[in-house]
Amino acid sequence: QVQLVESGGGLVQAGGSLRLSCAASGIIFRLNVMGWYRQAPGKQRELVAVISSGGSTNYADAVKGRFTISRDNARNTVYLQMNSLKPEDTAVYYCNADRITAYWGQGTQVTVSS
Questions:
Q1: What does the DSSP assignment read for 77-102?
Q2: Residue 28 and residue 32: Cα distance in Å, rounded?
Q3: Is there a contact between 7 and 20 (Cβ–Cβ < 8 Å)?
Q4: Three-state SS for 55?
Q5: Given 42, 75, 93, 104, which is the most exposed site by the fewest CB atoms within 10 A?
Q6: Sign of CA dihedral 22, 23, 27, 32
Q7: Is 28 helix (H, G, I), strand (E, B) or coil?
Q8: Which of 31, 15, 6, 5 is closest to 101 using CA atoms?
């Protein structure tokens, strides 16, 4: 059974930082492209950042220079370090694992107050 369990969300003031974690089980983690997506109220889910099995990364323009995605294959965990947070970063953040089949976590709420 595949499980992606996110943690680390919460309430933070603008300019602050949070670190999200996603622990994966039931997949061959090192072979999966791992990603973070977010969905704000009334908006579609959007890509935030992805990291390939080889460690290459890609970011949405809105978060470039502020967010960093990383992975620890020994711990089957992907991280999203979020710095200089803005109110518009407020959303539910979802972890995604994609190889042949895509899997999603349950999401973690991030709220940035102004």
A1: EEEEEE-S--GGG-EEEEEEEESSSE
A2: 7
A3: yes
A4: coil
A5: 42
A6: positive
A7: coil
A8: 31
Percentage of residues in the chain having pLDDT higher than 90: 99
- Decide: 1 and 26 in contact? Cβ < 8 Å: yes
Determine the distance from the C-alpha atom of residue 7 to the mean position of all C-alpha atoms in its chain, rounded to a whole number.
10
Q: In the sheet that 3-7 helps form, which strands lie side by side, from edge to edge?
A: 3-7, 18-25, 77-82, 67-72
In DSSP notation, 60-71 reads -GGGTTTEEEEE
The H-or-E segment that residue 111 falls in is: strand 108-113
* Contact call for residues 80 and 88 (beta carbons, < 8 A): no
Phi, then psi, of 57 in degrees rounded to 5: -125, 155
Residues in the chain: 114
